[in-house]
Amino acid sequence: MLATAAVGLVSPSAASVVPSGPAVRIATVDRPAPRLPATILAPRTFQLVGASWRGDGRLEVRAGKGGAWTPWSPLVHESPTWTDDATMVQLRRSGGSAVTDLHLAFITSPPVAPSLAVQPATPTRPAIITRAGWGADESIRRGPPLYASSVKMAFVHHTDTASVYPCSDAPRIIRGIYAYHVLSNGWNDIGYNFLVDRCGRVYEGRYGGTTRPVIGAHTLGMNTSSTGIAMIGNFISSRPTTAAVTALERLLAWRLDVAHVDPLAHAEMISGGNEYFHPGQHVVLRVISGHRDGSATSCPGVALYAMLPSIAQAVAKIGLPKIYYPRSDLNMKRIAPGESRPVHFLARFSHTTRWTLKLIGPGGMQILTRTGTGSALNWRWNGQAPVLPGGAYHWTLTAPGASSTNRPLGTIRDWNRSAHPVSVGGGVVSGGAGSLQAVDGNVLTASSFTTDSRIPVTATQFDHAKTVGSSIIPDAGGQPVTMELWNFATSQWVTLGTCPLVAGERCTRSIPASRGTFGQRDAGSGTMVMRARYSAANQMSVELTSSIVTG
Q1: DSSP string covering 327-386, please?
Q2: Distance (Å, rounded) from C-alpha 453 to C-alpha 439?
Q3: Which domain holds residue 168?
Q4: Which DSSP category does 17 fall into?
Q5: Whether residues 84 and 174 fall in one domain
Q6: Residue 211 sits in the same domain as residue 233
Q7: Of 170, 210, 408, 444, which sits with the fewest C-beta atoms within 10 Å of its C-beta?
């Protein structure tokens, strides 16, 4: 322990003051080669002090005002230390040797009247005080949120600020941490996704949505696919309050349930690189881990870290039953109008339960439903359905009392089927159906003719078609041709459009299938018959025609 008499006095004359918005201000003091121990006067009264430096030295700080000093606390790079109102600090080395390029940030976080607006509690979620509720100055945020594909785990932190404070000061502490993370650390936003105060109130941290996999800045190299929850206080030797622990457990139970993650399981993370793990290294961690498990730090303090196993056990019992790890091994890929590549669906349940899986297509169309009973889902769909329209697909999994899941399956392209004529009628001068089935030099000659084509789709698939049309390839050009489709419901021709005939070039025209009933089931073949008419002012020589449907 170093004697106070050995601490020198440093003038703040070189300090610079950086505004951080209407509520919070930061004054900085830089010492390239500090002589420790030292006393440093702040440019103004402050409530939090943060520091960064180079070297292997470890620092402790205490703050003073009017001759009274706070207890010594360790300084960390990531977060400031809460001092309450103070005008100076004393610094001393607690380990290591080298301390250079010392940068101190004195944060003045005046009391304001935050709205304490909340997302109200639900049976499965604690009340969450929003960013507006704790008075976040959104003007200092540096960029939009970034998102991971999912949340796999949670890191528990402490803010390394005082453990005993009026709970009315918690928003003030959070505003100070936010300003420090953005204006001193240069981060886009506050690092934590959530914070919890000693009275058990939960606060929204980083911007981007409490239910979305927002990437924070709380655990170096492990921020992607994790959520960071900070307990406001210092828990090196003292345990958090019962109210705070209860709130943490409820928050973890809800947030991990949103992600459908088992709190007693382990997660495989891919490190972005830090003192422990090299970039790209696969690391297996407990789903509920402490900050120190993911990077080199003492956070969340010895006392709180020792509680994490019992906290995880408590979390696992809250809000049952639950669905864990719903997933499908493959995205959909079309094989035929009514067939996809097979898809394997997997999930685990906290209890033996009856489950229901639904495959949902574009526009909310329910493609299929599967039910079962058990402690797990392990079902392989053969990819076949009466209809699979092109578009985005997702699947849902529900179980009585459990939070449902909704997962994407990807997007499949529209199907497209066409067929050449099986019969030809009308004013045919020469040629026939055989002349229109291949580009083979045989041509049909007529000024107007009709064709019937059998489209290889079912009636259900045809009923869900998006477009219908026809195409023509002339042997000779020089005049326009009008193309029409027969509406079997109204017994009328519907115009598709006009094509300028160019020898050897295909011309296609189509319309929305919703404009009529353009197919009729052929009971003998199980296909759909489409009827088309082609008309011109003079006789045409036609190589090939086809009827077309997409869906």
Answers
A1: EESS---EEETTEE--EEEEEEEEEEEEEEEEEE-GGG-EEEEEEEEEEEEEEEE-SB-S
A2: 17
A3: 118-316
A4: E
A5: no
A6: yes
A7: 408
Q: Are residues 379 and 472 in the same domain?
A: no
Model confidence at 432: pLDDT above 80: yes
- Residues above pLDDT 90, as percent of the chain: 82
Domain count, the chain: 4
474 in the same domain as 349: no
**Choice between 118 and 79, residue whose per-residue pLDDT is larger:** 118
Residue 516 lies in a domain: yes
- The predicted structure's pLDDT at residue 331: 82
CATH number at residue 421: 2.60.120
Q: How far is 228 from 206, CA to CA, in rounded Å?
A: 10
349 and 294 in a common domain? no
Which CATH number belongs to the domain containing residue 193 in this structure?
Answer: 3.40.80.10
Does some domain include residue 337?
yes
Half-sphere exposure of 540 (CA within 13 A, CB side): 30
The CA distances from residue 18 to 83, 106, 108, 227, in Å, are 20, 10, 11, 30
Q: What is the pLDDT of residues 153-206, one digit of tens each?
A: 999 999 988 788 899 999 999 999 999 999 989 999 999 999 999 999 999 999
Residue 529, classed as helix, strand or coil, is strand
Last residue of a domain, one of 293, 316, 339: 316
Asked if residue 310 and residue 455 are part of one domain, the reply reads no
Say whether the peptide bond before residue 300 is cis (omega within 30 degrees of 0). yes
Chosen domain end from 272, 301, 316: 316
> pLDDT for 103-147, tens place per residue?
999 999 888 888 889 999 998 899 999 999 999 999 999 999 999
Is 163 domain-assigned? yes
- Mean pLDDT of the 301-325 span: 97
The yes-or-no verdict on residue 9 having pLDDT over 60 is no
Asked if the structure places residue 113 within a domain, the reply is no
Give the mean pLDDT of 530-536: 98
Query: Using omega within 30 degrees of 0 as the cis cutoff, is the peptide bond preceding 37 cis?
Result: yes
Are residues 490 and 352 part of one domain?
Answer: no
Integer angstrom CA distances of residue 547 from 251, 379, 470, 511, 519? 59, 39, 4, 12, 10
Q: What is the CATH number of the domain that holds 351?
A: 2.60.40.1930
Q: Which CA distances in Å does 104 have to 9, 20, 45, 76, 292?
A: 15, 16, 14, 11, 24
Q: Residue 14 — pLDDT band, cuts 50, 70, 90?
A: very low
Lowest-confidence segment of 12-21, 67-76, 275-284, 305-314 by average pLDDT: 12-21
Tokens of 371: 């039910």
Alpha-carbon gap, residue 506 to 528, rounded angstroms: 23
Query: CA dist 206 to 116, 152, 254, 324, 524, Å?
Result: 16, 18, 17, 26, 64
pLDDT tens, position by position, 351-371: 999 999 999 999 999 999 999
E strands, 176-322, are 194-196, 202-204, 226-231, 266-270, 282-286, 288-290
What does the DSSP assignment read for 288-336? EEEHHHHSSS-TT-HHHHHHHHHHHHHHHTTT-S-EEEEEESS---EEE
Q: How confident is the model at residue 303 (pLDDT cuts 50, 70, 90)?
A: very high
Determine the pLDDT at residue 17.
41
